[in-house]
Design brief:
globular, 4-stranded mixed beta sheet
């Protein structure tokens, strides 16, 4: 459901999607997540109850293993939706956070 909300939101703010991957068809496990985090300066994870957690990866205060565990779902696959905007990675959907990062 959150993927539909994210896609709907992105459609209303006229943001073009450079690449879209269906997580059900192309799984992203721990190794792929580590590659996905390369070059990321800020990681934002939206948890249950719309709790927003942020990490500045330029000054890591937690291990990469802990960060990977934050972005993997119960199946061991990358949680969806996941959005990369420049050097920021957002996992989960939270409209206010999307607006803030996109500047809309």
């Amino acid at each position: 459901m959150t993927c539909q909300k994210a896609q709907g939101f992105l459609g209303t703010v006229a943001v073009s999607v450079g690449q879209q991957v269906d997580a059900r068809k192309t799984p992203y496990g721990p190794a792929e997540v580590l590659r996905l985090l390369e070059g990321i300066e800020q990681l934002i994870v939206i948890g249950r109850g719309q709790k927003v957690q942020r990490w500045d990866l330029r000054q890591p205060t937690v291990s990469m293993d802990e960060l990977v565990s934050q972005v993997l779902g119960p199946t061991g696959n990358l949680r969806a939706p996941t959005l990369r905007i420049g050097n920021t990675l957002i996992v989960g959907y939270h409209e206010a956070t999307y607006r803030e990062v996109l500047g809309v």
